Amino acid sequence: MKKLLIDGVPGHGWLMLAVTTALLLAAPLFVNDYLITVLILIFYFAYAGQAWNIMMGFAGQLSLGHALYVGLGAYAAAGLYVHFGVGPWIGMGAAIIISGVVAVILGYLAFRFGVGGVYFAILTIAFAEFARIGFDHIKFLGASSGLFLPVKQYVSNDLWSLRGKPVMFYYLMLVLMLVALGICRMLLRSRLGYYWRAIREDEQAAQSLGIDVFRCKMYAVVISAAMTSVAGVFFAFYYNNLFPEQVFHISRSIEIILGPIIGGIGTLVGPIVGAFVLTIFSEGMTELLEVFKLTSPGAKQVFYGIALLVVILLMPHGIWPPIARALGLAEKSGEGKPTDEKP
Amino acid sequence: MSALLEIKGLSKNFRGLKAVQNVSFDVTQGEIYAVIGPNGAGKTTLFNMIAGAYAPNDGTIIFAGERIEGLPPDAVCRRGIGRTFQIVRPFPALSVHDNVMVGALLREPDTSRASVRAHEILRLLGLHDKRDMIASSLTLPDRKRLEVARALATDPKLLLLDEVMAGLRPTETDVMVDILRDLNRTSGLTIVLIEHVMRAVMALAGRVLVLHHGEAIAQGEPAAVVRDPAVIKSYLGTEVVG
Amino acid sequence: MPLETYINVIIGGVLTGLVYGLMALGLSIIFGVVRIVNFAHGEMMTIAMYVAVVAFSQFHLDPLLMMVPIAAALFALGYVMQAGLINPFINRPEHSQFILLVAVALIMVNLLLIIFGPDAQSVQTSYSLDSYEIAGVIIDATKAYTGAAAVVLSAALFAFFQMSRTGQSIRACADNYTGALVVGLNVKHLYALTFGIGAACVGAAGSMLVLLIDVTPALGPGYTLLAFIIVITGGLGSMPGALLGGVLIGVTEAMAGLLFTPSAKSMFSFALLVIVLLFRPQGILGKATR
Questions:
Q1: Is residue A65 part of a domain?
Q2: What 3-state class would DSSP assign to B4?
Q3: Which of A220, B218, C54, C196 is deepest in the core (most CB within 10 A)?
């Protein structure tokens, strides 16, 4: 475990990670409330993007419906809290189980019946849309008029019930993002990680090397879904309101996958870089448009769309890979090679 | 010596086209066995059935005493049959080392030890200097060797090689022949190969099976088989003579 | 409920479904040939709908007449999009193509939002309340016109692909890309042409649909999805399949609206999609090999 987590990271890589982490840890002491909320959003997208990247970047299965797992996680934890007073940490267990089960069903249906490529992607959209419309009609969970968590002015932070000030969520999401980075590194360098990449590259060739392709793809879908649902739990307790039209909407799914694709699909740092770049760009755009009095609704999205076009045209592999090479942090292809090796 | 692979009455149809018809043969433990025949004779179809890519319509495949026909490719591989593809398919975006690593992880779940194994095999096939290269950047001869290396890494009892000499220059063919012969001698690895390059077949194979229109038309020692009138007729006196 | 109610609803569903089918035909043609999933399909249709709304409200031009110029305009848009923007992406991975078209869709939706605002707009023609009664069955006049127009256009397209030289060349590109290059076909031009034809379908369908539903800028994504569902249900690459899928979805939606609640109608379409994907992944009229 430890070997998978830390071996092969160069010294200056550790230094950069340590400096970045230290800066983020200290940030709430210096920055204003607005920036805290922006950073929480960044951590959220970095985390969810990291979880999505397991499925697409590692195992090559394109999901366009990850809002499904965010929503299931959010509704599971919020529903338990609102109706039964069950705390979010226990609710998180329920969220993981429910999302995992749904992922098993989706994965089983798709992979057993040989639904792949674009068809798989559309099946994931269909599941998410099905949930969106379905939750619109579940009265117990507020249906289309929304599910609300009780809110009051907090003086202290209750970590157990996740009731408190934004700064508590700031640190929680930061930890979550870093834990996801660690988990993904271990996964990527494990046997399963090699198998995923083999499947991503060529399923039939992978199978001829003894890999149980069905099982490995199932692992990818379930792990990715379970991790994503945890983001949903925090989403629910941070925003305190849930509407099916919002949480399950396809634009939520797209938001999740933009970060890793812009940052660098299949890489470990890409989802984090992508989340920072996109969120800062988006927020900066809002400010800038206000300065120029371009406040009509939609103006921001138009520029956002143009920016996406430019990035995808000019940097097909994302922002991170060229930076990583320049910094000497690119994942070495011969990694995992034994140290006692003689030339 | 006992038969490692026994094929009995194997047949495969594709929408009425009889690709392989009632083919039977045995491969002995430690043997190098070649399957030859003109294009479209059913050689690759035969391989695909042994490797589990196709289920046969009829017949049995017994490997190491167990029936394996109709098993999926991964299960066949885990039982000890490694294969290469006629059109090479390395994992393009992975490094040469990682390609072989994927194979090595089958028998050695620990990544460090699997990596040690991958390095050994890369040395064996002369790819060690290129281990950090991305597979898609290799030349065709190197890709063919990588394909063999990857299959070998799964530690097979039987290796199925589908035209690994095709497209190689004569000197490169000789290198591959030496590698395979060494493997066979030192580790007792049983090899079944499909090959058009007769130079390699004559140098390697102890016995040869000739397929024509999906049927086995001759079987025996290479020197005897190439003199068989039926075989010469099937090739219309082209490649076999040279 | 009396039997007539069911029959009326089913006929209404079939007629609306034919318009859906024409829209989906555009997606199917594009995917079948260019192998690009047009994630901006519904958005392109929304553009066509707004053009029809403006033509009607400013110049009193009937959407059924405007269908032809709007289809031509969308053809031009599609041609330019494929030739200028999408062509460099045809060999890129699916997720790259997806982001490209999502970005295009995002720009389209929000430009419409800026220009027309978020409120729904509609077209009220002189015949919008007319209906025919045939043997006790009431058929909405607008739906009858649009359904007939969709059938005529689909038939024309079918004839184009079967009989014209260009149509045959496009089919050759779809069957064998390398082969098409070898025999000297201008694949880039043919691809752009195909995208244009697909966009023209959407344009025509949009000007028809504006008679049936109100238009808002946010309509796009829902119709993109609907087009996917129809195409997959009917069978990708099958032109009659797209129409059949459209009709099936049209009827499913209409029946779900009648028997359950209208807001849940698309759930039944998704359920239909999942069933088809599982038991006949190539679609109802699709070819068996994938």
A1: yes
A2: strand
A3: A220
What domain range is A46 assigned to? 2-327
Smallest Cα distance from A301 to chain B, Å: 34
User: B93 and A334: CB-CB below 8 Å?
Assistant: no
Mean pLDDT across chain B: 89
Kindly state whether C263 is in contact with chain A, defined as any CB-CB distance less than 8 angstroms.
yes
Instruction: At C110, give phi and psi (nearest 5°).
Output: -80, -25
pLDDT one-digit tens code per residue, B160-211: 999 988 888 888 888 889 999 999 999 889 999 998 888 888 889 999 999 9
**Which residues in chain A come in under a pLDDT of 70?**
1-2, 153, 331-343
User: What average pLDDT score do residues B5-33 get?
Assistant: 91
Does residue A154 lie within any of the structural domains? Answer: yes
CB atoms within 10 A of CB A305: 20
Contact state of C106 with A301 under an 8 Å Cβ cutoff:
yes
What angle do the packed helices A33-53 and A270-291 form, to 10 degrees? Answer: 140
Nearest CA in chain C to A266: C95
B63: β partners: B5, B66
Question: In this structure, what token pair is assigned to residue A35?
Answer: 């920036």
CATH no. for C3-279 = 1.10.3470
The CATH number that applies at residue A41 is 1.10.3470
A337 touches chain B (CB under 8 A): yes
Q: What's the token pair of residue A144?
A: 């289309």
Q: Judge: B74–A334 Cβ closer than 8 Å, yes or no.
A: no
Q: Which residues of A60-85 are buried (b: 16+ CB within 10 A; e: fewer)?
A: bbbbbbbbbbbbbbbbbbbbbbbeee
Least confident interval from B30-39, B188-197, C6-15, C173-182: C173-182
Rounded to whole angstroms, the Cα distance separating A187 from A194 reads 9
Eight-state DSSP code of residue C216 = -
H helix intervals, chain A: 2-6, 11-30, 33-53, 67-84, 88-112, 117-135, 166-189, 191-201, 203-208, 213-239, 244-247, 250-263, 270-291, 299-314, 320-327
List pLDDT tens digits, range A302-338: 888 888 888 888 888 888 988 888 887 776 543 333 3
Please report, as a single letter, which amino acid is at residue B113: R
Number of domains in chain A: 1
Q: Give the class (CATH, top level) of B3-87+159-241.
A: alpha beta
Taking a C-beta distance cutoff of 8 angstroms, is the pair A298, C105 a contact?
Answer: no
